[in-house]
Amino acid sequence: MAREIRLNAFDMNCVGHLQQGMWRHPRDRSRDYTSLEHWAGLARTLERGLFDGVFLADVVGVYDVFRGSAAAAIAQAVQVPVNDPLLLVPGMAQVTEHLGFGVTCNLTYEPPYLFARRMSTLDHLTRGRIGWNIVTGYLDSAARAMGLERQPEHDRRYDIAEEYMDLVYRLWEGSWEDGAVLRDAASGRYADPARVHAVSHDGHWTCHGMHLCEPSPQRTPVLYQAGASTRGRQFAATHAECVFLNSQPKPLVKSLVADLRARAEAAGRDPRDVLVFLGVTVVLGDTDADAEARFAEYRQYASIDGALAHFSASVGIDLDEFDPDAPIRPAQTQSNQSNLEAITTRSETAWTVRGLTERMPLGSRNVPIVGGPARVADELQAWVEQCDVDGFNLSRVVVPESFADVVDLLVPELQARGVYKRAYAPGSLREKLFGRARLPATHPAARRRARR
Predict the structure, then answer these.
(1) Could you read off the pLDDT of 200-219 as tens digits, one per residue?
(2) Domains of the chain (ranges plus CATH)?
(3) Angle subtended at Cα 75 by Cα 72 and Cα 81, rounded to the nearest 5 degrees
(4) For residues 268 and 442, is the Cβ–Cβ distance under 8 A?
(5) pLDDT per residue over 33-65, tens digit each?
(6) Backbone angles phi, psi at 247, to 5 degrees
(7) Phi-psi category of 370—alpha, beta or left, where left has phi over 0 and alpha has psi -120 to 50?
(8) FRET label pair with 331: which of 19, 129, 191, 347, CA 20 to 30 Å apart?
(9) Tens digit of pLDDT for each residue in 82-110?
(10) CA 342 to CA 293: how far, in whole Å?
(11) DSSP for 364-377, written as a single string
């Protein structure tokens, strides 16, 4: 029996997310990102298409490496201006019943005590549909904006993240016991003080206090993680329930997925407790020819400078300083190591700046899948069968039509093949994804549950 394909919409509370320059397209409405109606409309469309969730990216800081300044990023709206993703969730949840929400929050700059409360609040308000994409950041501009000289070095950020995770697990899972909330009007006791516990922790982070929220439907949000470096994969294998990988050649993706599952098993977890979502871009039409025509139309609006500004800051090297035809060499940076490794040490191709720009037809490194519903469905199924991925984070090109095309054209094709659901499963986001309300006993959060 064919595996069910899972879909998330991949978006960001900004004008230019990944396909740089597309905001100039006459049908694009990404400039409406400051309107709650814009996001409510997206949520309704995605739920109509039975999407598992909307995955909201975020970045703290600006892309200021390309040509030594943020000028290109600002001019091309490369993830700046950008608004807070968490504040979108209640509005989107209000107009939907099942859609999940994965929000990106940078733990390097988020005090864990207050962050734990915000996530519990969102889990309550969405009735258990919130997820957290755990990131440690990769921009020195963010560190400077937050009052630091520079960001901690790459692997040190993950060491800090391990401590952070243990602390928020203790707040979410261990501060309030099951049964602590009584709501007993007759006795006048809303909760049992004996079953509510303070959390004491001293380290990089310090906390001495009880979690401020009563237990939410999931307690711990569904945990996403997007680091594909060696250290990032180890962190994901320990903590993540859903892992996001950037689109790369199939053999490389296959090896990364196999490594993730092996690391999860070595950590005492079921490898199938980790769902892998691959980031892809699709350009759809009623037929292959229609899709090719639309692709040709879209690419007229691509911003290569915007794409290079985004990628330069992501990898921490100014691509404008390279000979366009010279191979890009590995470098020690504190930015996104997996993106740099993908074009250097893990690539069979000697990538040059010119080669990269030729792979940016829509203003990003994602080479789109272009075709009618059957061609695109064939390609998605090939990724699942050949690389063992579980689903896809679909990024927008032109909104709202990119997501509407998936709902109206691709989803029926996948359903006809028996590889996409025809109705939502009941319950919380975790119940929909894994068939259980709480994290399993094999997850490190389970060790922090309060027990009488």
Answers:
(1) 999 999 999 999 999 999 99
(2) 6-181+190-298+370-448 (3.20.20.30)
(3) 105
(4) yes
(5) 999 999 999 999 999 999 999 999 999 999 999
(6) -65, 130
(7) beta
(8) 19
(9) 999 999 999 999 999 999 999 999 999 99
(10) 30
(11) SS-PPEEE-HHHHH
